[in-house]
Design a protein that fits this description.
Catalytic activity: aldehydo-D-ribose 5-phosphate = D-ribulose 5-phosphate
Enzyme class: isomerase
GO molecular function: ribose-5-phosphate isomerase activity
Helix content: 25-40%
Strand content: 15-25%
Low-confidence stretches: 6-24
Structural class: alpha/beta
Radius of gyration: 19 Å
Pfam families: Rib_5-P_isom_A
Largest sheet: 6 strands, mixed
Organism: Senna tora
Bound molecules: ribulose-5-phosphate
Length: 265
């Protein structure tokens, strides 16, 4: 059940939100999508405790959480935090926000990760990676004890792929057309179209932080059993990782016009 914002604002009193969040929270009629992302992010950061090793997600929702953690550190309300960033962009943001950073080699167990998602199904399975960071996200979030996903309600779907938007697959650049066409063929019964991700408007491939390419899969209909699809994609030589995060999220925080709801596994 959604907790309406007045309740949420009250629970924020112990650690007042920044002025911009307070401003949006008192005027629910004018909440933008970015306001909702920020509300979900701030709610997730309430679970952060001093001394934690934190997985720091990537994207326009996660960046609000990273900024909030930096703010609480600078105010002395959090101490002794170590962040494990899931992308170069988040690494740079976290560094600028004063969050001490490490990696999985030095900190193989992560207490809590907070990240956004592109799709969330009713079982808390996710599509991630439209921001291109799915591999590092899956490594960090797969190593954490708790994985809190933060979304606005536009990300909720009845089944993965159901938004009609991309399901990303990270592949090696070598013979990428071959790998893309095998992916498309694998899901031809679902009307799949595989497209190489390119840099805005030009034909240059988008290159991930790991030096790989991303092929986005678009489905006309459901691609069936998620585990079967996941295993099939991962068996294909040339594939590095895909953006289905199955059975990984422990909590999903959803912010919508009417309030914020918290779904636990
Ligand atoms: O998986 C991701 C990046 O690889 C992001 O978490 C996902 O794309 C959601 O992004 P946003 O919060 O900007 O909507």
């Amino acid at each position: 059940m959604a907790i309406p914002y007045p309740h949420f604002i009250a629970s924020e009193k112990a650690a007042p939100p920044s002025s911009s969040l307070a401003a949006v929270a008192t005027s629910p009629a004018i909440l933008t999508q970015d306001d909702l992302k920020k509300i979900a992010a701030y709610k997730a950061v309430e679970s952060v405790q001093s001394g934690m090793v934190l997985g720091l997600g990537t994207g326009s929702t996660a960046r609000h959480a990273v900024a909030r953690i930096g703010e609480l550190l600078s105010q002395g309300k959090l101490t002794n935090i170590i962040g494990i960033p899931t992308s170069k962009v988040t690494h740079d943001q976290a560094l600028a926000a004063g969050i001490p950073l490490s990696d999985l080699d030095s900190h193989p167990v992560v207490d809590l990760a907070i990240d956004g998602a592109d799709e969330v199904d009713p079982y808390l399975n996710l599509v991630k990676g439209r921001g291109g960071s799915l591999l590092r996200e899956k490594m960090v979030e797969g190593a954490c004890k708790r994985f809190v996903v933060i979304v606005d309600d536009s990300k909720l779907v009845t089944h993965l792929g159901g938004s009609g938007l991309a399901m990303p697959v990270e592949i090696v650049p070598f013979c990428w057309k071959f790998t893309a066409s095998r992916l498309q063929k694998m899901f031809e019964d679902s009307g799949c179209v595989a497209k190489l991700r390119t840099l805005g408007g030009i034909d240059e491939p988008f290159v991930t932080d790991n030096g790989n390419y991303v092929v986005d899969l678009y489905f006309k209909s459901s691609f069936g059993d998620l585990k079967v699809a996941s295993d099939g994609i991962l068996r294909l030589p040339g594939v590095v990782e895909h953006g289905m995060f199955l059975d990984m999220a422990t909590t999903v925080i959803v912010a919508g016009e009417l309030g914020v709801s918290v779904k636990n596994k």
